[in-house]
Amino acid sequence: MTEIYLDNNATTRISPEVLDAMLPYLTDLYGNPSSMHTFGGQIHRKIEVARAQVAALINADPDEIIFTSCGTESDNTALMCAAESYPHKKHIITTRVEHPAVLNFCRHLARKGYRVTFLTVNHEGKLDTDLLIKEISEDTAVVSIMHANNETGVIFPVLEIAEIVTQRGAIFHTDAVQTVGKIPIDVKKLPVDMLSLSGHKLHAPKGVGALYVRKGTRFKPYIIGGHQEHGRRAGTENIASIIGLGRACELAGGNLDEEATYLKGLRDRLENTLLERCPDAMVNGDTVNRLPNTSNISFEYIEGEAILLRLNEYNICASSGSACTSGSLEPSHVLRAMGIPFSAVHGSVRFSLSRYNTDKDVDAVINVMPGIIQDLRRLSPFGREK
Amino acid sequence: MGEIKDAAAIGEVGSIVCGDALKLFLKIDRETDRITDAKFQTFGCASAIASSSALTELIKGKSLDEALKVTNRDIVEFLGGLPKEKMHCSVMGQEALEAAIANYRGEAPPVREKGRLVCKCFDVTEEKIRKIAEENHLTTVDEITNFTKAGGGCGECRPEIETILDSIWTLKPPGKPVKPKKLTNLQKIALIQEIIETEIRPGLQVDGGDIELIDVDRNRVTIALRGMCAGCLMADVTIKGIQEKLRELVSADIIVEARG
Questions:
Q1: Three-point CA angle A50, A51, A52, nearest 5°
Q2: Which of A43, A147, A224, A263 could be bridged to A33 by S-S, CB 3.0 to 4.6 A?
């Protein structure tokens, strides 16, 4: 039995076209692009092709793209670089719902003496830009706000945010790991200074990411060593993965609108049917400004890990914001920041789709889910089912 | 699993806020005080559900006094182990049982309600921490978090848990008390040499001084101060400092003497 994979915000499968593009670089073309000889040197040109492919997806110039090892490295680099480039500024603004790659790096900077403002969100996971206007000052070095949230799929108004931030002379970084390849991004229209993206969220392999750095932005490398990436990111290039990321960006760019419509159709059918068939269930997050592939649903009175394990029996892969699955004792920081009641946070399940999902996958979930919910509620000391 | 409609005793622990909760139903034979049936309802992860199920299997047919001897460790054993971060699920089982029996006997629920609140995120009292720590021989804050969840939220109470643990284990050391290791003469000399090399000499060299180890005779360590240290007015203080360091790291009875 093959898996029914509905956890694409966690990671995605490598698309066959991407794998094909990568394979020569894992076999015959093993040279080092920094080498003098043609055998190695020719690979340098291939990296530049990949760079142009990544740049094209967000309408950037190729030399504004730096390849990194992952989304986390891109986020860390952006924050560190902004902080070090403006050493006299000691204030950072971010949100309470960021990915740990940003959240924990900001906490790290807080321990080093920075004042960090964590903006809150409302019940629908939406950010109030008035809060940002109130908090931003001459002392603000960097504002880092994600493009869309990984747990709820809620999209933040980055255009408005970018205008506020750049007007006040601070650096604006956005973690776009969940949006690149899912919704259109045009950095010629969006005045963002830095933008992070990750390969394995858009059908490229794990272990590769990129950071967009707008021309003219002060930059200091985070990983120091050789001259690779024009001295902006040292370390011998992860060639095969970089080639794969380039190809994945090209594929995503070619189908962006079509794919979004397809995913939204699947997602909405999944979501609406589950809400119809399962009482005491609700969608978490703003359903208007939302990624087309994500649905986060809370099933009251039961616990998420138990739901996931039951889904797992049917080979259905999803994830949850429950405490038991978070690796700590605290349930999802995102849903809690939104003020979702504990009972609903613990029973939250996230389905995230990709172009490889089909109607059959959605059918599988809507066939088994109501029974699972009913079983677990029978077992629960809370909320008797009518 | 499920409810017992005419249960003689009901024990409830945990809450939806904490992320796990257990409601235990007991049927009890009034003549013999024996548990004739046990069922549960659990809100929680697989480990919580499994712990609840193990508990009901363990106590069926037991008298109340026998059942009260069932500990969280019995539950873990019955299950063939639990991941360490899920130990609190087994503790919840034991607590639900205690609460149910107290409920049957018309007593106040044990432990949980009493005592000073230490962990405000998960409502854990000092008494519970002490009890679980002693029963399971827990010595670190992380272990306490695994077994009771205390300290696993905001983390503010972690220093307090540390203090509680200190107070428990300084009175009753866990297992064998740690005896200072008996060193052979050769080991002692090697250790002294190493400490002088790594801990003492670099400090002296900063001030242009140096040290030479001349002899070790039982607890008597003879050294010579060189460079700027030789004849320095503060030499006595330096020697005393060296003696302190060696007493701390090698043996408490060391005496350091200097030869000019």
A1: 90
A2: A43
Measuring CA to CA, how many Å separate B90 from each of A303, A378, B79, B132?
17, 21, 10, 11
Contact A213, A64 (CB under 8 A): yes
Q: How far apart are CA B100 and CA B109, in angstroms?
A: 8
Counting residues of chain A whose pLDDT is more than 90, the rounded percentage is 90
Q: Residue A4 contacts by C-beta under 8 Å, 6 or more apart in sequence?
A: A314, A315, A316, A317, A361, A364, A365
pLDDT tier at B176, thresholds 50, 70, 90: very low
The per-residue pLDDT for range A270-326, each reduced to its tens digit, is 999 999 999 999 999 999 999 999 999 999 989 998 999 999 999 999 999 887 665
Active site annotation includes A324: yes
Q: Considering only CB atoms, which chain B residues are within 8 Å of A330?
A: 121, 152-153
Cite the residue boundaries of each domain of chain A with CATH code 3.90.1150.10. Answer: 256-379
Q: What is the 8-class DSSP label of residue A180?
A: B
A306 chain-B contacts, CB cut-off 8 A? 44-46, 49
ipTM rounded to 2 decimals: 0.71
Residue of A329, A336, A374 for testing the chain B interface, max B β-carbons within 10 Å: A329
Residue range(s) defining the domain that contains residue B125: 112-177
Beta-carbon separation of B42 and A323 below 8 A: no
**Distance of residue A310 Cα from the nearest chain B Cα, in angstroms:** 10
From chain A, pick out residues whose CB is under 8 angstroms from the CB of B46: 305-306, 309
Question: By CB neighbour count within 10 A (0-12 exposed, 13-18 middle, 19+ buried), where does A268 fall?
Answer: middle
Rounded to whole angstroms, how far apart are CA atoms A322 and A343?
Answer: 10
B241 plus B144 within the same structural domain: no
| Cross-sheet strand order for the sheet of B220-227 | B209-217, B220-227, B255-258
Domain boundary among the residues B110, B126, B150 is at B110
CATH classification of A256-379, choosing from 1.10.1040.10, 3.90.1150.10, 3.40.50.300, 3.40.50.1000? 3.90.1150.10
Residue in A303, A309, A330 nearest the CB of B43: A303
Q: Least CA distance to A379: which residue of chain B?
A: B41
For the domain spanning A16-254, the CATH number is 3.40.640.10
Q: Give the tokens for residue B205.
A: 């060299």
